[in-house]
Queue: 4 jobs
Job 1
Amino acid sequence: MHQNYNRNTNKTATFMDPLSFDEAVIVVLHAYDCTTMKGHMHGLHQRLLRNYDLIWNQVELRTTMAISSTFQAVFHVSLNWTGLRIGLESWMQEVDFSLNLIFTLEYLVHAYAAFDRLEYILSFFPIVEFAVVLPSWFDLISTHTPSIGYADTLPYVSRLLRPLRFIRIFRLVQFATSSLQQQAWAAMLTIVSIVFTTAGVVQATEACLEHCDDEARVCRCRDLSFPNLLYFVVVSISTLGYGDISPVSISGKFVIAFVILFTFIVVPIQVNRIQATITSHTDYSSAYSAAKLHPHVILTGFVNADSLSVFFGEFFHPSNLNWNERVVILNAAPPTPEINKVLHAYDSKAQYIVGSPMLDEDLTRAVLSDVSACYVLVNRQSSRPQYADQCCALITIALRRGNPTCPIYAQIINSRNAATLLKMGASDVVVVGMLKFSILGRSCQVNGLPTLLLNLLAQCNSDLDSHHSSPQWQRHYLHGYMHGIFLLDIPRTFSSLTFGDLIRFLYDKASIIPLAMLTDDGVRFIDMDFKLGATADPNLCCKVYVIAKGLSAVEGVVKIPPEQILSYRKGVRRKGKSSSSSNLMEMKKIKPALGDEIEQIRESIINMYSVAEDYDVEAAMGLADSEAYGYSGHSHGRLMGEMSEYERFASLGAPEDITNHIVVCGFPSDTYHFIITIREAPVPDDDNSPSPAIVFLAADCLNEREFERLRGFSDVYFVQGSPVNFADLKKTNIRSAISVLILTQASEAQYSDPNMVDADAITIVRYIVEISQRTRMPNLVVELDKSSNVKLLSSQANERRTTSAYGMPAPVNRNVSYLSTRRESVNSVLSRRDSFWTSLDEGDGNTDASFLLEEFIASGRVFMNSMLDSLMSECYRKPWITQFLHLLINGSTNDLEERRLFQIEAPNKLIARTYGECFRLFLDMASCTIIGLWRPERGVALPHPCVFTNPPTDLQIEVGDLFFVVGKPFAFTSSPNIFTS
């Protein structure tokens, strides 16, 4: 020890005195403990702050506290009904103190979880709450510590403060269903609380604490019952008073005078608030004023009730961490009645402002300068798609000019405009046409894909698979619906593991499936042998996109003890596989991103969309050349009677012997990406099956510009006719088709009732069902604009099932005993499904919850356009999720392995094995990841096909199951021994 630092003396060293190594270690450890403790406390406050609204908004908790507040007020009236009760019996004191303890804890939690604690403590209602909880504590202090000073005054103060508990009845306002109803209840409860509180205070001030035989005016006190005091207060504040009852004490007179003046001020204010609320329902000119308390996002562009409902449902979902954020809707038109219904459901979290995003004053009212993010929605049903995209581009420019740093997420229709919009300032774009028709194109080859993506993009609120009364297939199906796509921060403790080891570890520990990594070049599939390394962040290894069952599973990764990771790293066995030299070179180029490499990632996305833009330019030049050289349908330079290539396409129709093809009822708005998704799907080695031919059936042929975009594709045919005409359907040889795609014919302002938008698609389904009665039904995919119309499709499916009209014959589960007719068994299954809808609606809170168990949804036959709005809301908290979805569907041109999502039938070797065993076999033997399966119908046990997303590990594989696989496509015909150890 140094002489100037000795623990055994009182001498203290200065901060300049040198320390020994041991002393320095002690000081460092002490500082580390303090820092760690502060970090834990800060983390606790952040978690409580984030989950505060979620916990407090639980209906059961709010109802319990409101009932407790009302009971406490009624309890006070009952005790003092005939006069002020000076002393309380023991059981009365216990009841009063128990209630007060609950409200004390509530006040402390509110104060601790407040965003600005000082502002909360000094607010009106928190001050009242604090004053209300004091009387019971004053009584406790005066009873157990009578010797302290001022102990004799505490009971008197306690009696004066107890009547303030009537103000707590304001909690009943939260049960109002609209803002107008809230203001009406607030005005009524204001008067009630003033009357009852004043009556209680006057009773306490006027009461005779000592016996007095003289008149009340001489004694300066009087004992009054509570009903008489209520009458006195009402008469006093409403008229000049009758004089039959009047206060005799100085304090009582002061209270009455104050209450009369207070009433003259407060009641008119409440009336004015009601008038302002009524006015605000027709006038949305006010500015957003809560920017300092609540961060907000701006939603603008084309806003309708359907897109708004889906967007709000996803944005305010508990898994999205937007607990403290608000949405400001900036639209040039006033809200429609349908939009008002949606706004009233999110009254405290959304504000509608009538204004244009092109005007600076309107952007100022929306507080663009402090916005967290901006969303620009496009009119998907516009008759002028290019004009709709141009409007979104102008709005993006205006938003970027007003705020150079905030993220801007925009929707557009045409892929050729995506690169331009990104260059104009958009952070990310959702290309509606490209994304939708890429998914629909892949759905023609992958059974159940629409529902798989719906499960991953839509989110639910509760454990839907916990209802034990539902059939087993429903529990497994709803188990998959609860999964979602998340961007997971992998802690640094996972460094030196391979990507394959990471998948094995997370799947075994939390049933989480990592699929891709965020790199400085964007989202990429990673080789299983890629070794995770360190990044510039001392706490982060990398960011990966995963499939997980809710946010709780994702948050559990950071809670995994480092000892388990180290133990797994030591015990893992390498398989001895060696990557090729080209793969090793590619892996060395991969650099995990931290998420702030925005410009570099945007450049990679711009390059991806530039391919579509360049192809569109080439198509336009090809059209110009054909017109110049006389090959167009309008040219006179060709020989008499000679048809142009476009005319031959429009008139020849489909070959009579065409088989194993895809029939499309209608024309996609982005035909190029629809076809290229089908044709660019990699064919496994030694698999000589050609890409399926495509037959379009529509009343009107596509224009010459669109024809130029697809003229380079072979085996593409067009049949002019109507899908609701049996003769025209037969021209497509639909009975030999492998897939049938029905596109909705939605257009702007086509129907007086917007719910009729899917009428054509539903009618076409009926005709296809009838024409396919005696044959095996092809893979049917229907596009719907309104999710509520799914029930109409299911009603046709129920009729088909009872009459055996169509459907794939499937092997019967041998464990099921059939003791009733098929019709009765099916009806019992349907009745169980119908009875389960109620629990879905109550547990989820999503308006589409009752549609989940509809046959066309569960079997993966319906693509709902609302999925695109769900994806839009995910862009904020899950950056670059659109690029991940494109990668999943189409792969990447830079990926030598051509990895993407594909489907493969379970071979005989995997039948009767568990899903968990199959997951590990695919990962170890094929370097692929399975994320779910599609199962055909199984009689009564499974009345229709069903999609299981990441099902439980103990699910047994059955004959006919189709795996959803992510990786390099292969076929068991070309690799029969792939699972042979």
Job 2
Amino acid sequence: MKSHFSTLVVSFCYLQIGYSQSSEADSTLIVNYNNNLPTINYHLTARPWKPLNISRTAYLDRVEGIVRKCVTFQNSSGAIIDPYANREVQYATPYFANAVATLLSAGRAKDLLNAGVAAMNKATIDVAEGASSIPDNHGEFFLAPLASAIPLYTPFVSATQVQTWKSRMAKPIQDILRGSTNNWRTYAMKGEWYRAQNGYVNKTNAISWLESSWINTQKSRFTNNTWNFYHDKTSDPDTWPYESVARSNLLDMIADGYYGASKNEMLTLLKRGTQSSLLLQDPSGQGVAGGRSGNHTWNDILLANGYEIMAELANLEGNTRLAGQYRHAAALAFNSVQRWRRSDGTYYVTKNHFSPASRIGYASYSYFTNYNGNMMYHMAENYLRHKTNISEQPTPNEIGGYTIASDNSFATAVANAGGMHMEVCLRGSTAITNDRYWTTLGVVRFARPGWDSRLGPSDGIRETSSNQGVSFAPTFLENGTWIRLASVPDRYEAFFSTQFVHPLLVRCRVEYKPKAGKTGPTFNNDFTITPDGILSILTSSTTSFGNTWPLLTYDGATTLITSITSFVASTSFSSTSDQQNFIALHSSPTISTTDQTRRSSYGDLRPVRMVSGTTSNVTFIYPRNASDPTAETVRKSFVRSGNDFTSVLGKVIGNMYIGRTSAGGEGTSIDINNDAIPEATFSTNTGFIIQLNMGEITNVETDTDVTAVIYGRTISLQPYTPVSITSPQRVTITAVLASSAQDSNVAANTLDSNYLTRWSAYGNNQWIRYYFTDLVTLNNVKIAWYRGDERSHSFNLQVSQDSIHWTTVYSGQSSGKTTTFESYTIAPVSTRYIRIVCHGNSSNLWNAITEVEFIKVTDPASQQLPVEAITVTNEPIIFSPFLPAR
């Protein structure tokens, strides 16, 4: 069950495959047809999960938005003219024509028929006249959208018009293509099969060309690496966006009925590569960072294209769980790009809100209309592929429990625990390709479910103008100047290793070393990843070193709210939105903001330098939602002991994690509420996940056959089979009353299973009282205090059988360390009423409780009645229809 590696690895809980990092970008071919596909066996997520349920028509809504803006760019010849380049660019016109056809086929946008026909006429004439007439010699991209659009237009135009288009589309393929054999060839293959299927070219000849293209130009791009990722080989490190593009194109071809001799071989590789890619997508839906054309908005929609196809295929094969994961992954990708949708219905080309005229993050070939063309054409494809009602399932990036490292040509590693996702670029670009350094050395992305992954490190940057880079990575003092590793990828590279993986806890290391022939200090960055955040411990062979914390400060439209204190650097789009926090876990760190801001594809990144002044630099990376504890609260509560730590968010003890919504790890028992009494015990050492709701176990899943005792019940568990748990000990509360309440902060709020609501009352001896219909024997009271992580509350617990005579069974104070449940054990006592008498807090006389629970003894024979009774005479009489008359 444990996963310990000293070399670069690919690790899954509990499937591990490891290999050493090669120094060569291209290794001997490794064909992996018989290897197991990467599988995440666990089902339970660390955080509450729900499907996105995005309908297929949502794709059409977005397509129509783009089309209706782009039609205003159409000239009299039918061409789509880029408003910034002032010319027809690449494949903007055929993609527009296809998108209109898809809308028409769905009964929409009938007023755009003439515009669509004009675009079809312009684009098919270009094809008929050959490569030299096709804008920017992009013939590879014309075939598929035009060939598939003709059948969609057929019900709306004359037979003569259809025949004219078919005749134009019969041009021999060698006269249309530029001839590039990278991902461009997959566009041509997809298009040639569409032409053959629709009868525009000879099918036998087409299959012969397709087979030759596969064998001689494409196959080796998949088979030269462990996970059968596609190698475009057009940037160094290689390009992840075109990895998904090529797979999606070939999957489209097979989904449309391709049956050539290599079909099964293709499909085996494509299925494996696509399933592997699920591990790289981040939980917000973004594809992996790095390589040519990265950080373009279309990246995620092309990723979704492959997932929509595979959802239908997996469902057809009867693999409903995998089908549901693909469907959900496609929905995540669709949601991701909405962050960069413009008010006019189009999309920003790159992942920012700068004017397209500024070309921030653009490649030399990036234009407004060709890449909005990408969005409308491929979203139209996604609509057509999304046919079956498939129930979504949590994706691997939402479950976690794995690390994966690519071959050295991509030079990427990803680690994920409970959805907390970290991506590392192990090499940075050293040469400018198409106007950019595409890959930044260091950690370039932190993400988690339900959180905005635009926030730092924002995929990092190395500027071409200054050669200065920013990522979450070491910085060191050399000859009086601070050097960020992101700025010197010609000197440094990184190596990744994994020490432990579990869905709720991953321990891994990134080791930075000078390249062969280069000099400089070495660095070890050890990461402990939990669902709440990531503990980073950086050590070095030099004494003057620190960490770079990248803060996104401006995205082209919004100046973010940034805060830099003596211990914390944070950034957010608004005071009520998600926030990224870098927390220095040192007594007196030096935090510097004097380095110049650098402009990335996401916007402006401020490199904040944190130097601890000790032998290690320790940072807690804390992506928080607005309702989570503040970064300062987390910092003040944070306690480290070796590799273990605890805070208001949760704790890590050995190979065990206990948090607010989940707990688990490896072991034979777990004490969730820290009362020295395990809530769950197992008959043998096992890996397990427990889901929690307000501190109570709701679901459990293990990796072995094991017998568990949970809340006194014996349960037989089978591997990777979640079981729902109902606590038999929780007392049902019939009614609640209070001595007084502040405005809407009423007593009932303590029973709504919501930490964000509360009962509040000012003054000494304010009380809140609960009534049980039946006589129950209590032995534990759980209270969640409002702002309980900032101050301690003084209180008594009193019980009564008649609400007149009261017995004090507990007196004490809250810990002042948590806003979640604290557990107070009492001697078993039989009661019908219980009240909490409050005496203010360590700051003032306000009393405030967010939630309560009462736990009863399952064996009443063990009860012990208290001897001292206190009669309360000053309690006001409060009428409630839920209480018996007194």
Job 3
Amino acid sequence: MATPDQKSPNVLLQNLCCRILGKSEADVAQQFQYAVRVIGSNFAPTVERDEFLVAEKIKKELTRQRREADAALFSELHRKLHSQGVLKNKWSILYLLLSLSEDPRKQPSKVSGYAALFAQALPRDAHSTPYYYARPQSLPLNYQERGAPSAQSAGSAGSSGVSSLGTYALNGPTPPPPPPALLPGQPLPAPGVGDGLRQQLGSRLAWTLTASQPSLPSTTSKAVPSSGSRGAARPRREGDAAAGAVEVTEAALVRDILYVFQGIDGKHVKMSNADNCYTVEGKANLSKSLRDTAVRLAELGWLHNKIRKYTDQRSLDRSFGLVGQSFCAALHQELREYYRLLSVLHSQLQLEDDQGVNLGLESSLTLRRLLVWTYDPKMRLKTLAALVDHCQGRKGGELASAVHAYTKTGDPYARSLVQHILSLVSHPVLSFLYRWIYDGELEDTYHEFFVASDPAVKADRLWHDKYALRKPMIPSFMTMDQCRKVLLIGKSINFLHQVCHDQTPTTKMIAVTKSAESPQDAADLFTDLENAFQGKIDAAYFETSKYLLDVLNKKYSLLDHMQAMRRYLLLGQGDFIRHLMDLLKPELVRPATTLYQHNLTGILETAVRATNAQFDSPEILKRLDVRLLEVSPGDTGWDVFSLDYHVDGPIATVFTRECMSHYLRAFNFLWRAKRVEYILTDIRKGHMCNARLLRSMPEFSGVLHHCHILASEMVHFIHQMQYYVTFEVLECSWDELWNRVQRAQDLDHIIAAHEAFLGTVISRCLLDSDSRVRHAPRGSVLGFLGRAYAAGGQAGRRAGV
């Protein structure tokens, strides 16, 4: 006898049976024959070989598991798969995936019972020929024997697979015995019970489908009612509404609710303008629980309408700006996800309408299932509706702040949703920001950015007046320090280009790359506001500010001009001031109306050449000039003379008109004090010279003694005042200014330090408006000394005559 091929199907199947049962080949002969018969049968599912129906069932299952996003993703992937011709048996693959995804522990539904009914047949059942049951003689007889089903056993059999057919058979006009179950693990009927039974498969299926009709008497079966019973009209109860009440089935209510979800009035559920909500019409004959459930579900439609109305109105408003349009786009994106869920629900409802067999409630749409499945979408729409209310009348950075406020919620799902919307809404703001700090360009057509520009301001006031913070538009996720730095970065770039005429590309100033090209970049940036975002702003701020200060100090000698102000306008160059006063004395004693500025300018140049001032930079010396103040009647040259220092270009940003006015006021005060010292020195020298001449006139000794004492007191006073002004005011303030300038990180720090220096000098020299009133006698003393010196000179000249 030839040895059988070890790789033949029969040998492999026999080996499999031996391995599973753990017996020899002789002991598994009967099981082997049974396995051969099962393999030879036409085992096929009841689901129609329709790729679309299987895909819809998969989407329905994903929706039932509250995985709406996965359902939408599956729909997109299935569309791509359908458009490609790589796979031929797409239906088989989809059905396999659906079968593998089913939970094996789940109790089989009625539809799975239909599958078992079709699957139990051997080849003779695969055709429309009559069904003959005769137990195979080769099958083992050690299965548990089961007699004819009774009414009691039918109650426990109605919820599981094929055994439930016995229940339906009891309800028939001539109850036949149940068909045998040939699936492994199910009991077989006793011998002889099924012998001679002739019944077509279509007839048995018809009995199954009609078992749940209301016309048949009910049993004690626990089987779930089918969708046919769900869609049937509910009998009117005693006490229902009076005449005119309309019977409404739950199926019709579900269909209405699906329309309401889209903002469309249904047949029985409509929008009430008076109450501003959806209501179930009063004549609908519904139980209170169904009515309340329908109203709760209809809230989803009200939320949808609220959001849709906002987006429709704002999408057409161009003045809403880019941030507002991004907000509308984010709302549209969420609504699209919501519409995908509705499409899945509509597809399931359509599938139930088109299905050839009735599905049980466990597979159909009900109000309670909708309530569960739409819980998460309802929470999302509630969050969006709250955002819409909170964002009314806002735009730009203010709108971004309103959205950011909702990220503080403790609900992680709501926070995740709002953070996603914030990444979309803030993307235009971050685009404005990066365009500003890296290019110095401000393209804010609808005034949404927190940096405002005034195009009417000229270049000489660019730093002070052209750019400012628009505080209502500052996003709440940015600090005021960050906004100030952002303002300074762009302002520095424009100052370099327009005032300093430095056209160096910003890429050479800032070694930072842009990182807000997409909303995803913005979302990543928001996850690390304190590090990544702060780091980018700080890097751009330090680089641009350092470059600007280098240009001002090296190219425009800002610090040299500041020191020149100290030497010439605050009388820090002592030899120059003393020599200038000596040269100007003959000119300034004349009436102010007889002075000529070019003569005084010539004297100034002579004083410069004769002192250490000649070693200063020509750029500084050419800015030093003479200025004559407004002439009043009786003024002399001493009253109207002043030094001046011309400033223009970038340094005029630091030495503004207000600053130069303070310098002029301080110079006049110091110049008058220096003149008084000069006068007292001349008086003292005169007294020394006349002391010997007047010794022969003892009658004048007392008067001369009093004059010497008075002159000494005046000299002491003026020396004390000059000491105070020079050391306690000027030197201390100047040292503080210089230290602050050396530590300054940007131009604003230098400007603030310089203004603080001038303010200290003016107030401590008692030149401010309050001190003028309280200390008016001080000016009178200086004026009196000047007039006394002039009168003394005239008396001396007369005596000499």
Job 4
Amino acid sequence: MERTGRRLGREEAAAGGCGSWRCRSGAWRVVLLLYWLALRGLVHLSFQRLVQSARGPKEFSAPRARAYLENITAIGPRAVGSPENEVFTVNYLLEQVKAIERESSRAHNISVDVQRPTGTFSLDFLGGFTSYYDNITNVVVKLEPRSGAEHAVLSNCHFDSVTNTLGASDDAVSCSVMLEILHALSKSSEPLKHAVIFLFNGAEESILQASHGFITQHHWAKSVRAFVNLEAAGVGGKELVFQTGPENPWLVYAYISAAKHPFGCIMAQEVFQSGIIPAETDFRIYRDFGNIPGIDLAFIENGYIYHTKFDTADRILTDSIQRAGDNILGVLKYLATSDKLARSHEYRHGNVVFFDIFGMFVLAYPARVGAILNYTITALAILYLGKKILQPRKRALMYIKELAIAFGFTVLSWFAALLGILFVAIFISLIGRSLSWYTHFYVSVFLYGTAALAKLILVHTLAKTFYYKHTNEQFLAEIFFDVPLVFWSISLASLTYLGVSSAFVCAIWVAFPLLTKLITYKELKEKGATMKFFTMYLLGMSIPHVYSLYLNWIIFEMFVPIMGRSGSEIPPDLIVAAFIVVISIILSSYLVKFIYLARSTKTIIITLTTVSVIMFTLVCSGVFFPYSSDAANPRPKRIFLQHLNRRFHSLDGHLEKSDSGIWINGLDYAGMSHITPHIPELNDSIRTKCDEDSPLCGLPWILPVDYLLRKNWYLPAPAIAPKEPIRFQLLSKKQMPQGSTKLTFEASGPSHMSLFLRPHQGSTLFRWSLGDGTPMVNAIDGDYFVFYSHGLLALPWQFWIELKVSDENTRGMVTLAIVTHYLFGDDQKSPQLHALIDRFPNWTFPSGWVSTYDQFVF
């Protein structure tokens, strides 16, 4: 093939001109740098854009909501069962509702009910477990027209908090927003068509118990046709719609129509529902147990301090509260006056693709329309590529061959970048320098991003230098435009066929490059790779680039903080490194062609490599400490400590062995490596050993997360003596007519307990009085896990299990362990636990409580 591109360049230079982009090797780097800085700035500005507080009495007032927030958090930590949660917060909510009722318009009627439900259910979350709750608290408020209403929309928040935290964002701010929405709606002189039920639930952190109690037992629940759930995965910022449905596309359109500042994306929904994020919200309960469609919203900014003592009211911007209030007030008012709410079952079918444009507005269309659109875009790409294949046979075969080879080089560059960067991430993890980017996120970009780009460019530079040495540059530019087009087209068609709504991202990466190609084709053909062509090309590609940056920013905002609480088994550097490589591949996919048009890539490869090597050296030398105690922007390390008594009983009831100590879990991959210099006794010599003969290793898990936290420490300490000790007994043992054995137990203790069960060989647990009656085994560790909590007052917990025994076993039928958790009050922390917590450095969040573990064999 004739080297037309280089010949044109020489002729232009000989004529004394330098219009060619290739003649000015430095100019394109400057333009490219300015391009990325401009896109990054645009994305940054879109996330900073909040709103000012409203002034009108019938509008949402963030200052009033802030006053509610500060008063709720001033009560202190609000664990389920504590007086702070069950009495003080409940009384405060009732007082505020009464005050709102006194000032409300005569067009409305406000009813209040305090519910104390008892119930049980199973949940296939964290491998699967069963939950039992007794006498927990819901404060339910109904706003309806004076004439009454048959149908209702539910708004849900929770006022309980994780132990040792104030829970300002999770979820006191949402309850404050709901109080202010109730105030604003009650002031209106226009009656609503339907009722609005405000559920202030008091047991969400105990794994969604209060919402289950409401939706399965409360008499108002039958009137609920849709719900809006207010949650948090961070502290302030914008609230993201991350779940809708199931189906019921009319709810998405309602949100789009009514929310003043919409922010949501179907991709967030598909990521969350994939199970990648180990979390659930009350949305799950209303969907699965109430068969009700809804909208799930959550604050996602600054997840580093979510569920820590730093989650305080002063860290939530008033403008963030205003934004959330405007949106939710608009949506609730829209739903409460909508004709569709009463007939929501008629609008159930179908899904919707939706995504916001920089938080300014949301685009939405039916999933079936999206499928047609995606296949149409794919067809256009096939048409474009087909014109090149439908040439004379020799040229067509040559094109297909070159396309396949170029695709091979592209895939090779991807694997080279991925494997190389993963090797770096593994090395950094092995030498104990993981999470160096946790406080300084730019470190991950300069460490992994620059290395990934250098690898990508290097592979293509070598291909250009050795394989494509005598090939026309413009032909190479064409072929390396077609390669990513083929990749994105295949991805688009495949994801659409699989019903993945997030395929719209692939559609953007096919449609806009094709359009850009159409616009720039004439310029490239007639004048070559001029600066005008380069600029036009970048402008055309700016939409997929900027939107991908926008989505990636959201993903990073959610996922990077999760790496600080993802457990001891998942190397976070591998995840972040792989993600950065994927982003680098995506963003550079249509820019690879310029490697083949450029005179030299030596400078950029050296620059990128130098930056990466310098950053690698700094990381390995420990310059970047993962955590921060900065008062304005803390990045704490999370640690759980439980002062523990363990007692193991034999089949005849005698005590076989016992011990006591402080059991310690670091919630991230670094474990205790950064703590040992401050507290020398916390080292690997006291690592906990798993007792294989005991369920869940014989350790006092409050939830079945043992598979995430296999590295933990057990520091010997004196035994504890809680004022409210556990009382556990076998009430009866009966042989059933069908040959099974029924064991009935009674337990009384603190507000939080866990029950572990492991049937012995030859025994099968086939029925019990919990959940739906069919025992749910944990799919990860094979044991049975029951989570129990109760409110302020509760009767002893009675339950029974029924086992079938096929073989006689001298070691008994089942091993059972009952675990207590003292999350508040005088029993919560021992003097030894207090003393140890005080020794932790200020860049940590050590959360501690007392536990007991009693194991029996029956």
